[in-house]
Write a structure and sequence with these properties.
The protein is of the alpha/beta class. It has a domain at 127-302: 3-Layer(aba) Sandwich (Rossmann fold), CATH 3.40.50.300. The protein has 7 helices and 5 strands; from the N terminus they run E-H-E-H-H-E-H-E-H-H-E-H. It has helices spanning 138-147, 158-162, 178-200, 220-226, 240-248, 258-268, 286-302; strands at residues 127-131, 153-157, 204-209, 232-236, 278-279. It has a 5-stranded parallel β-sheet with strand order 2-3-1-4-5, with helices on both faces. Helix 1 (138-147) packs across helix 7, helix 3 (178-200) crosses helix 4 and helix 5 (240-248) runs antiparallel to helix 6.
Length: 307
Amino acid sequence: MQHAVGSPLPPPHQPGHGPAGGWTPAAHHPGPHHPGAHQGSAPVPPPPPAPGFTPAPVPPTPPHASVPPTPPHASVPPAPQHAPGPPVPPHGPGPVPDTTGHVPLPPGAPVGAPPPTAPDSAGTTLAVLLIGPAGAGKTSVAKYWADHRRVPTAHISLDDVREWVRSGFADPQSGWNDHSEAQYRLARRTCGFAARNFLANGISCILDDAVFPDRPVVGLGGWKRHVGPGLLPVVLLPGLEIVLERNAERSGNRRLTDEEVARIHGRMAGWYGSGLPIIDNSQMDVEQTAKVLDDVLARSIASPPSW
């Protein structure tokens, strides 16, 4: 006999009728183990509910009638075997788009030269490299300059990044060697990446480092590779007696011997005649030096130095 087509009701959970808490549709076609599933003159009663579950009333089904689909609130208790997975995003499968506001770094060196029509340096997004010997006041001036700009600005100190290494730190006071040189190079690359990340997100940055003119590949050449050709270098070079006084006020591994300070200062004198702007802040405090730095950067924007 041909029966009307309909969706079969799931059987009640009984011993020997499939796994607990669920049912397999393929196992419930009419067959020998379900005698009279759609036969006989008696109405088909609804399956008994699970313990503790109150089913909605289901009207009797007349013989040979289509069985309507079971609504979700009917007598089959909802008992998923697995915890529901995470909701599917509206955009479909695939990687979730980044909505945090992060701007990916562009390939290569992203820092181009500032526009020459910029009205001043205080309101322009810049990348500045402040060069000078130990005791020149680089860190103090860089922090003050970054604090008082009209646009977001970050200060990136090479010494701070270099001292992130705790165990195994190569202290230059113990002698300059390949190990300390490698950590300086690593710190420069790290600072350069941080600068690019800030600049790609619209934040200016000022870096400070004791870059020597007699090592152009490691010094300015390295910073140009790490940050980009738009980096604006400025040399901070007070007199030797000033850097000796300021170095004497330092403590820890940042305090050098007078002989080392004098040697570094002598090497820094090679920046004269290099074409880079030089600020002699021997008679200036931090605020005055920062103002002069703004003027120097404004001129560098209008006429970038060759380096």
